[in-house]
Specification:
- With 406 residues, the protein is mainly alpha-helical.
- It has a single domain, classed as MFS general substrate transporter like domains (Growth Hormone, Chain: A, Up-down Bundle), CATH 1.20.1250.20.
- It is 81% helix and 0% strand.
- It is built from 19 helices and no strands.
- α3 runs parallel beside α8, α13 runs parallel beside α18 and α16 packs antiparallel against α19.
- The longest helix is centred in the N-terminal third of the chain and has 29 residues.
- The protein is globular and about 60 Å long.
- The mean pLDDT is 86.
Length: 406
Amino acid sequence: MFEGFKSLPRNAKACIATEPLWALFAPTTIYFMPLFQKQLGLSELQMGSLNSVNIAAGLVFYLFAAPLTNKLGRRRTSFLFDFAAWTVPMLLWAMARSYAWFLFATVFNAVVRIIYVSWNLLLSEDASESQRPTIFGYINAIGSLGGITTLAGGFLIQKYGVEPAMRGLFWGGAVSISALFIIRYIYSRETKVGEFMMAKTKGESLFRLVARQLPGALEAMKEPFFRRMTGIYFIGNAILSIDFFRVLYLKDEKTLSPLTVSLLPALGAALSFIIFFLILPRRKGQKYKKSLASAFFACLLAQLLFMLMPRGSAVAAILIFPALQASVALFQTFRDTVFMNGTGAELKSDRFSLIQILMMFFSIPMGALAGFLYSLDPRLPFALASALYLAGFFLARSVQRLGETL
């Protein structure tokens, strides 16, 4: 399934080669964010509300994602809006003193929804269908590198304390991630479809392009494939709101030491690398829809084991948490592959933007709901995650039965 890196298109190589500059800081700061927010006096309900604000703001930005991506191009859109989506929030988090600072930062960070469309197309649009699992596999594997840097972040927190260590990580992240945007822009080129769409939308106003999405949205919702994939993307986004509280659950409810909590993502990263680069390459010619259903089942099983693991058992956590993390990486890889391979070339930006808009709309209550459930009983959000994974399994099986071969 996985071809060599050298055979990939120029843009894919540029995106993959620079991605470690993001993975060095972003996953670590996101993983430890609840500890930082709690240290500054935020409640679980306030933390959950920030996630809901991020989703609601992201919904607005998604309305402009496809029009901006088509009008400015995949490359230029990614470069311009990445600074607002990552550099500005990193600086705000580094200086945060209260809930208001986090509120402003989370609104800026929601701009990433524009980037999610433009960057995914820059990454994969020039690639063949057979190359896309390779590309998304590389990206998810590199994202797992954050698990290794999380271990380093844990050592920093243990030595200097939560607040000083996190502020240092935010400052470092602002510099590293900004360098990524500049280097990627220099070495990438606009995609062929991107050039066509830029010419096609030249002279069109942005707001007219936004309004034109409505007929396309109505048409897309008639398609069984699109409706099912919308549900699958929603589940993935809803799980992110729940996962935000996982580090608090491990530390406070499972009574694991800070060092053990920091070690778990590193082990998850190692397992993800083994799966992506040693196991999956041996499975040639697999059906990606079937693999998506299998990944959902693996997520469900790992989530149930996560809830059942005994308090204070580092051994159980070391066995279970990495399996859950690797299963989620597999699910994301096959989800994006199935959607991109199942969508026409000229429809990709509009459809990908639309599915994100719908995903965000349905996910708005999830951040606050996860925080509320956690305040009632820390086990409740993860019980909800199990139910969502089960629903995702049946949705993936339904997609598989549509009869397309991707």
